[in-house]
Amino acid sequence: MKFLAAAPKAIREAAEIIRDGGLVAFPTETVYGLGADALSSRAVAKIFEVKNRPFFDPIIVHVESLEALEKLTCISGTQDSILHAKVKKLAEKFWPGPLTLVLPKKEIVPDIVTAGLSTVAIRMPSHPVALRLIAEAGRPIAAPSANPFGNLSPTTAEHVRNQIGGEIDMILDGGPCPVGIESTVLDLSSPEPVVLRPGGLPIEAIEKLLGKVEIASDAGSSRPRAPGLLTRHYSPRTPLVILGKRVTPRREENAGLLAFQAPIEGPFRKVEILSDRGDLREAAARFFACLHELDKAGLAIIYAEPVPEIGLGQAIMNRLRKAAGS
By the 8 A CB rule, do 142 and 113 touch? Predict the structure, then answer.
């Protein structure tokens, strides 16, 4: 495995690995992705093998242009004019960025990418390394988070190396991910838009553009329509419990605390604070990094303080509940 700073030469080498059917971990603004040629079933199968990911869980495809999006989806044509206009409106406002769109797919997209569904999840990342890699590869890149399935998402190249470094061809180190929470997933395959997963783009921003949108409540489905919808996901190895009126830490425990703004009283051996200022954007960017630190501290349990469920707070609480399996 090669571990390289994301300089132009390294990106060109990574693109060649993608074209040859290999696996490259690379930075996006959300989390590090584990990338393969999205049009090669054999290459994508390696992602499932390395992550131990169930084949019923679809993978997001990353593109670097609207032209690439149109090659992969059925959004053109008279019968799809309303959908096309909606996609264009969203893309002009939020792409590149942490928004994934679920759209009817063309046959060129292998079934292994979409878990056999008639839709494909697509986004255009804003991280310059990701965009350069996709452009250099000359093809769309399928990329879930670069970690074992269900574990904490990686927001640094070191997180990737510690979890799956020995099983892939290259890690491109582009520094910490600035958003730090996976993308928001918006399903446009039905007449009314549905948020399948809250994420790095606040739902309120989408609603300013489209009006009120439905938020899916079918997480945990045996056949999810997008990644990250299983009941337990994004989990540390250490048991995690969300603090509340009925949940308080016991003094004899070897416990850690994930605090929102300031530590609370308790018998905590290790404390990580998401944002001293109470800034939800900073809290989201630090979320997985803080959990990685707590998870490697040898604790018996991690307690997590809830954050306000507004803006990016919805995405943080979504990840916390899945980490706790609640």
Answer: yes
How far is residue 75's CA from residue 135's CA, in Å, rounded to a whole number? 22
What's the confidence (pLDDT) of residue 78? Answer: 43
Q: Which residues pair with 62 in a beta bridge?
A: 123, 141
Mean local confidence (pLDDT), 163-190: 96
Beta strands in the chain (DSSP E): 2-5, 24-26, 33-37, 61-62, 99-104, 119-123, 141-142, 170-173, 184-187, 194-197, 214-215, 240-242, 255-259, 268-273, 301-304
Neighbouring C-alpha atoms within 13 Å toward the C-beta of 20: 11
Q: Give the Cα separation of 159 and 179 in Å (integer).
A: 16
> Which of 35, 3, 16 lies closest to 123, judged by CA?
35
Domains of the chain, earliest start first: 2-215 (3.90.870.10), 240-324 (3.40.50.11030)
Q: How far does CA 296 lie from the centroid of its chain?
A: 22
Q: What is the dihedral of CA 245, 246, 251, 252, to 10 degrees?
A: -160
Query: How many Cβ atoms sit within 10 Å of the Cβ of residue 266?
Result: 16
Structure pTM?
0.92
pLDDT of residue 182: 97
CA distance 157 to 119: 31
Q: Shortest CA distance to 125 belongs to which of 32, 240, 260, 263?
A: 32
Angle between helices 8-19 and 128-137 (to 10 degrees): 50
* Alpha-carbon Rg for the chain in angstroms: 19
pLDDT of residue 231: 64
SS3 78: helix
Per residue in 49-87, pLDDT tens?
A: 999 999 989 999 999 999 999 999 988 654 567 788 899
Instruction: Give pLDDT tens digits for 228-260.
Output: 676 667 889 999 999 987 777 776 679 999 999
Give the residue carrying structure tokens 């063309």: 106
Q: Specify whether the backbone of 171 is left (phi greater than 0), alpha (psi in -120 to 50) or beta.
A: beta
